[in-house]
Design a protein that fits this description.
CATH topology of the largest domain: Rossmann fold
Number of helices: 15
Number of strands: 16
CATH architecture of the largest domain: 3-Layer(aba) Sandwich
Strand order of the largest sheet: 5-6-2-1-7-8-9-10
Structural class: alpha/beta
Helix content: 40-55%
């Protein structure tokens, strides 16, 4: 079986959970014996010895030459890797299908629907669209700004035009059914996995009574509940003088100081020494953040899956998460984490105070979470159902 992944993120080009997920899927399927190729559109390209930076891909007005396509190369995992600019995505994809002959093309973002649809039309290859987030829900549930509605229109075209849809959770399947009832027969539910690491295996469960650290990891955007978290922080720090918050994330160009200036308000001034923004962090840097933290907080208004939940569980962190989407399906309240109603600042603060003041409960929750993620959410457990989706085409 051969699968061509079409994406705007792939390690080391990672801006959020998408890059982590696509990298995980490609490598895990390769280990399972699937032949994998990845076409990365955008990112940093090495062309003729020079590095060129391409932003978000845009649909080209005319066909261009192939000068913005890097020569295919094979990774250590045996993955064939192709990089190209947005303007050359269609031509590069058609050529990859014609020369490499995959059984399935796997699309990971509607930003590339213009290329994926053209590839499908030119080659007839079946197209699987991985709906990593429902854009209409980003706006309706997460209160993201109006541009998400414009982006949702491209996603709707991808949902209608693809042969199969991957929903990350049952709650995401429900949203897709509500928004796009005509697509119901095409929906399959397959969650994301996580890669175990030596660093995670060596992590110790937190029982530190002093200076416990609460970690937030993710994009600093409306739907992630960052406003609710920041509203809860002053009272939490007032009640637990030894606690501190570390907030990672933000667009890579922004400095830590720039991110802090964007979000901090006068109410945070007395606690500035205990609120630390890091800006964007690499996977290696995030591993150190997880290892040093005691609690992971995920206050999202809308969360389709939450790779960060799996990462926190892997490191044995006590997790406080909004009772929505992925977190609600992955965590069991009181056993592997604490869930609170989304947007409820008081409930969020109470849950954080509870764990900050009770190191033994933190340890108990973290231990249970670490066992759970290794029994249910490693990539090797998630690859078989994804292969079943591919086989719906390859067995015909």
């Amino acid at each position: 079986m051969r699968v061509l992944h079409l994406t705007t993120e792939f390690p080391p080009v990672i801006y959020g959970g998408l890059g982590t997920a696509v990298g995980g899927w490609a490598k895990a399927c390769a280990r399972a014996g699937v032949e994998i190729a990845v076409q990365l559109v955008g990112g940093v390209l090495a062309l003729d010895g020079n590095a060129a930076l391409y932003g978000a891909p845009r649909q080209p007005r005319h066909r261009t030459s192939h000068r913005d396509v890097s020569p295919p190369r094979e990774s250590e995992e045996g993955i064939l890797f192709i990089q190209c600019s947005g303007s050359d995505a269609t031509a590069a994809g058609v050529r990859a299908v014609e020369e490499w002959r995959p059984d399935v093309v796997h699309l990971h973002t509607a930003m590339l629907w213009y290329a994926a649809s053209a590839i499908k039309a030119a080659t007839g290859k079946p197209l699987v669209f991985h709906v990593h987030s429902v854009d209409r829900a980003e706006y309706d549930l997460g209160n993201e700004p109006n541009p998400f509605l414009a982006q949702a229109r491209a996603q709707e075209e991808a949902i209608i035009g693809s042969d199969r849809l991957i929903a990350l959770t049952r709650s995401e399947e429900i949203l897709l059914r509500q928004y796009y009832p005509e697509a119901v027969p095409k929906i399959r539910v397959v969650g994301n996995g996580i890669e175990d690491t030596d660093a995670a295996l060596q992590a110790t469960f937190s029982t530190r009574p002093e200076m416990p650290t609460v970690l937030y990891s993710g994009r600093l955007v409306e739907r992630k509940g960052i406003r609710e978290l920041l509203a809860a922080i002053p009272e939490v720090l007032q009640a637990v003088p030894g606690a501190r918050f570390v907030l990672t994330g933000g667009p890579p160009p922004f400095s830590a100081a720039g991110v802090a200036a964007q979000w901090l308000e006068p109410q945070h001034t007395p606690f500035l020494e205990r609120i630390h923004f890091t800006g964007w962090q690499s996977p290696a840097e995030m591993a150190l953040r997880y290892a040093a933290a005691d609690i992971l907080v995920v206050p999202s208004r809308y969360e389709p899956f939450g790779m960060v939940i799996s990462e926190g569980m892997l490191y044995g962190l006590a997790i406080v998460a909004a009772d929505v989407g992925g977190p609600a399906e992955i965590l069991e309240h009181g056993r592997t984490g604490l869930l609170f109603p989304p947007r409820d600042v008081e409930a969020l603060g109470s849950a954080l105070q509870r764990l900050l003041k009770n190191p033994e409960e933190r340890k108990k929750l973290g231990q249970a979470a670490a066992r759970e993620v290794r029994s249910k959410w490693l990539w090797k457990q998630l690859v078989p159902p994804m292969l079943d989706v591919y086989r719906e085409f390859t067995f015909h």
